[in-house]
Amino acid sequence: MNVTVLTGGTSAERDVAIASAVQVVGALRSRGHRVAVVDTAAGFVPERDEARALNATVGATPPSIEHLVGLERGVLLSSLATLPVVRNADVLFLALHGGRGEDGTVQAVLDVLEVPYTGSGALGSALAMDKDLSKRLFTLAGVPTAAWLMAPVSRATISDRLGWPVVVKPSKQGSTVGLSIVKHPDDLAPAIELASRYDDEVMVEAFVPGRELTVGILHDRALAVGEIIPRHEIFDYECKYTPGMAVEIFPADLPPDATDQCQALALASHRALKLGGYSRVDFRLTPAGEFSCLEVNTLPGMTATSLLPQSAAAAGVPFGELCERICQAALARCKVR
Ligand SMILES: Nc1ncnc2c1ncn2[C@@H]1O[C@H](COP(=O)(O)OP(=O)(O)O)[C@@H](O)[C@H]1O
Ligand SMILES: [Mg+2]
Fold it and tell me: Which pTM value belongs to this model?
């Protein structure tokens, strides 16, 4: 196959996207595919420049908003269509995370081009990026999710409807960027101010104590359930991207019926948002044994040690094969259309 990997972009998760691309490119090439790379913020990356262009390391904090705004000026989304490596690819592999790469914008541009691309379509991507809409659809599908309110909201309403602590987060972000746990009502306003730097819609959600679980979905089937034990109180940016800052256990140590239930809820969440190809569904599991769906990631991290690849590996699908099956799912989805 001729695969063009789209990566980079201008979201807060740009560095993570590049880390995914490096490994996807290597895995697909080692399986005999011809692979080209495009940074959606900078353009086509010739193979001789890949080592330099794809050397982003993921730091303990995301790139600053100012840095990302600078990149936004050079944005190339509207001219993607003019690139021969995009138009002539058999499939476009989206090694993009967050922002326009994951929210349906890139997907809508690619729908117009009629080139098959990996992951979910424009509508599903947009629904999954919007945590408020996602949670409404989870609820309709019978998938449990924590109670929530949208800002602006008074402290009295929060005390009444959610209790404390709460988690304040941008409705459309990722990588735990702009998210805070608020234990005391006095800390609500600064948390909302922080979240609103990343999205004009801010969510206030009941804090769910307990364990953190994640389940990969591939070809409409649930892969292995994994447990994440972060060093910090929550699975924050540093714990997500710094080796050694979280213990990740695949498969999770759960009774068989809890594993089955978690996989069934993961698949129901994936379908509720009308997702395609693959995704990764995140849950909390309370000490009382109740699951609560946090969100579905339509373009989860794709380094060989990222959570979806671990979930796949524990289900018998090694990384190279996973990358290839994600491409095949894209071709199958486009045939259906
Ligand atoms: N309601 C909640 N209760 C407990 N922890 C939460 C809650 N919401 C988020 N978290 C913690 O914050 C992390 C990131 O939250 P999430 O909603 O998945 O946003 P993101 O899209 O940034 O990953 C979760 O993995 C979890 O550790
Ligand atoms: Mg998450």
Answer: 0.94
CA pair distance 105, 130, nearest whole angstrom: 13
Residues lower than pLDDT 50 in the chain: none
User: Which CATH number does 148-206 carry?
Assistant: 3.30.1490.20
Kindly list the domain boundaries of the chain, sorted by start residue: 2-119+322-336, 129-144+209-317, 148-206
* Contact 229 CB / ligand 1 (< 6 Å): no
132 is catalytic: no
- Nearest ligand (C-alpha, residue 173): 1
Q: How crowded is residue 199: how many other Cβ atoms within 10 Å of its Cβ?
A: 18
Q: Indicate the top mutation candidate among 234, 238, 248, 298 to test ligand 1's pocket, ranked by most ligand atoms within 8 A of CB.
A: 234
Pick the closest to residue 218 from 142, 143, 290, 318 (CA basis).
Answer: 318
Note the pLDDT of residue 217.
Answer: 98
Task: Choose the residue to mutate in 205, 294, 299 for probing ligand 1, maximizing ligand atoms within 8 Å of C-beta.
Answer: 294
Residue given tokens 């262009």 in the structure block: 53
Domain over 129-144+209-317 is classified CATH 3.30.300.30: no
